[in-house]
Amino acid sequence: MKYSDTIKTSHGAEVIELFKDPAFTFGTLLNAEVKEQNGEYKVSIPMKGLFYLPFEIVFYTRRFATKRKVNYIAYSPDLTRNRWGSLRIAYENKMLNIDLEMELPFEPISSLILKKRVKKSLKNLEERIRIEKIKRKI
Prior knowledge:
Blueprint: E1 2-8, H1 15-19, H2 22-30, E2 33-37, E3 40-47, E4 55-65, E5 69-76, E6 83-92, E7 95-102, H3 107-123, H4 125-136
Antiparallel strand pairs: 1-7, 2-3, 3-4, 4-5, 5-6, 6-7
Protein backbone atom coordinates (compact mmCIF):
# COMPACT_ATOMS: atom_id res chain seq x y z
CA MET A 1 0.00 0.00 0.00
CA LYS A 2 1.30 3.42 -0.93
CA TYR A 3 -0.35 6.67 0.07
CA SER A 4 0.99 10.23 -0.20
CA ASP A 5 -0.66 13.52 0.53
CA THR A 6 0.21 17.13 1.23
CA ILE A 7 -1.86 19.07 3.72
CA LYS A 8 -1.77 22.82 4.24
CA THR A 9 -1.50 23.69 7.92
CA SER A 10 -1.81 26.92 9.85
CA HIS A 11 0.39 25.47 12.59
CA GLY A 12 4.14 25.98 12.59
CA ALA A 13 6.97 23.47 12.64
CA GLU A 14 6.05 22.61 16.25
CA VAL A 15 3.34 20.40 14.77
CA ILE A 16 6.10 17.80 14.23
CA GLU A 17 6.37 17.55 18.04
CA LEU A 18 2.87 16.06 18.05
CA PHE A 19 3.73 13.57 15.32
CA LYS A 20 6.77 12.42 17.32
CA ASP A 21 4.22 10.82 19.64
CA PRO A 22 3.25 7.47 18.06
CA ALA A 23 -0.01 7.33 20.01
CA PHE A 24 -1.11 10.64 18.46
CA THR A 25 0.24 9.79 15.00
CA PHE A 26 -1.18 6.30 14.56
CA GLY A 27 -4.26 7.00 16.65
CA THR A 28 -5.10 10.01 14.49
CA LEU A 29 -4.20 8.66 11.05
CA LEU A 30 -5.10 4.96 11.37
CA ASN A 31 -7.38 4.80 14.41
CA ALA A 32 -4.83 2.47 16.01
CA GLU A 33 -3.92 1.55 19.56
CA VAL A 34 -0.24 2.02 20.48
CA LYS A 35 1.73 0.40 23.32
CA GLU A 36 5.42 0.80 24.08
CA GLN A 37 7.37 -2.48 24.34
CA ASN A 38 11.13 -2.81 24.78
CA GLY A 39 12.07 0.45 23.08
CA GLU A 40 9.69 0.06 20.16
CA TYR A 41 5.97 0.59 19.70
CA LYS A 42 3.34 -2.04 19.06
CA VAL A 43 0.63 -0.64 16.81
CA SER A 44 -2.70 -2.48 16.52
CA ILE A 45 -5.05 -1.38 13.75
CA PRO A 46 -8.58 -2.76 14.08
CA MET A 47 -9.98 -3.90 10.75
CA LYS A 48 -13.73 -4.33 10.82
CA GLY A 49 -15.75 -5.43 7.87
CA LEU A 50 -13.13 -7.53 6.10
CA PHE A 51 -15.03 -10.68 5.10
CA TYR A 52 -17.40 -9.66 7.91
CA LEU A 53 -14.83 -10.89 10.44
CA PRO A 54 -13.13 -8.40 12.73
CA PHE A 55 -9.37 -8.74 13.04
CA GLU A 56 -6.42 -6.44 13.54
CA ILE A 57 -3.19 -5.69 11.75
CA VAL A 58 -0.31 -5.60 14.22
CA PHE A 59 3.09 -4.14 13.50
CA TYR A 60 6.06 -2.87 15.47
CA THR A 61 7.70 0.46 14.78
CA ARG A 62 10.66 2.62 15.73
CA ARG A 63 10.77 6.38 15.48
CA PHE A 64 13.48 8.59 13.97
CA ALA A 65 12.94 12.34 14.16
CA THR A 66 14.45 15.75 13.47
CA LYS A 67 12.99 19.22 14.02
CA ARG A 68 10.98 19.15 10.79
CA LYS A 69 10.59 15.43 10.01
CA VAL A 70 9.55 12.25 11.71
CA ASN A 71 10.00 8.76 10.25
CA TYR A 72 8.51 5.54 11.53
CA ILE A 73 10.01 2.30 10.25
CA ALA A 74 7.63 -0.61 10.78
CA TYR A 75 7.64 -4.37 10.44
CA SER A 76 4.92 -6.93 10.91
CA PRO A 77 6.03 -10.45 11.75
CA ASP A 78 4.04 -12.99 9.77
CA LEU A 79 4.01 -16.75 9.66
CA THR A 80 5.44 -16.78 6.16
CA ARG A 81 7.53 -13.58 6.04
CA ASN A 82 8.11 -10.20 7.63
CA ARG A 83 6.24 -7.27 6.13
CA TRP A 84 7.96 -3.87 6.12
CA GLY A 85 6.81 -0.30 5.82
CA SER A 86 7.37 3.31 6.69
CA LEU A 87 5.50 6.47 7.56
CA ARG A 88 7.20 9.80 6.87
CA ILE A 89 5.80 13.14 7.96
CA ALA A 90 7.65 16.34 7.10
CA TYR A 91 6.86 20.01 7.65
CA GLU A 92 7.90 22.48 4.97
CA ASN A 93 6.53 25.95 4.15
CA LYS A 94 3.26 25.54 6.08
CA MET A 95 2.67 22.16 4.44
CA LEU A 96 2.67 18.67 5.94
CA ASN A 97 3.90 15.97 3.58
CA ILE A 98 2.65 12.53 4.56
CA ASP A 99 4.01 9.39 2.91
CA LEU A 100 2.80 5.96 3.99
CA GLU A 101 4.12 2.78 2.46
CA MET A 102 3.36 -0.65 3.93
CA GLU A 103 3.09 -4.28 2.97
CA LEU A 104 -0.22 -5.52 4.35
CA PRO A 105 -1.94 -8.86 4.68
CA PHE A 106 -4.92 -9.17 2.33
CA GLU A 107 -3.32 -6.31 0.39
CA PRO A 108 -6.03 -5.17 -2.04
CA ILE A 109 -8.85 -5.05 0.51
CA SER A 110 -6.92 -3.88 3.57
CA SER A 111 -5.25 -1.16 1.46
CA LEU A 112 -8.62 0.22 0.41
CA ILE A 113 -9.87 0.26 4.00
CA LEU A 114 -6.73 1.98 5.35
CA LYS A 115 -6.51 4.55 2.54
CA LYS A 116 -10.13 5.50 3.17
CA ARG A 117 -9.41 5.77 6.90
CA VAL A 118 -6.36 8.02 6.34
CA LYS A 119 -8.21 10.28 3.88
CA LYS A 120 -11.07 10.68 6.35
CA SER A 121 -8.72 11.51 9.23
CA LEU A 122 -6.85 14.10 7.16
CA LYS A 123 -10.07 16.04 6.55
CA ASN A 124 -10.22 17.14 10.19
CA LEU A 125 -6.48 17.01 10.94
CA GLU A 126 -6.22 20.77 11.55
CA GLU A 127 -8.84 20.61 14.29
CA ARG A 128 -7.25 17.52 15.91
CA ILE A 129 -3.87 19.27 15.94
CA ARG A 130 -5.40 22.39 17.48
CA ILE A 131 -7.10 20.39 20.23
CA GLU A 132 -3.97 18.33 20.93
CA LYS A 133 -1.82 21.49 21.16
CA ILE A 134 -4.25 22.89 23.73
CA LYS A 135 -4.15 19.64 25.74
CA ARG A 136 -0.35 19.60 25.75
CA LYS A 137 0.00 23.37 26.17
CA ILE A 138 2.23 23.70 23.12
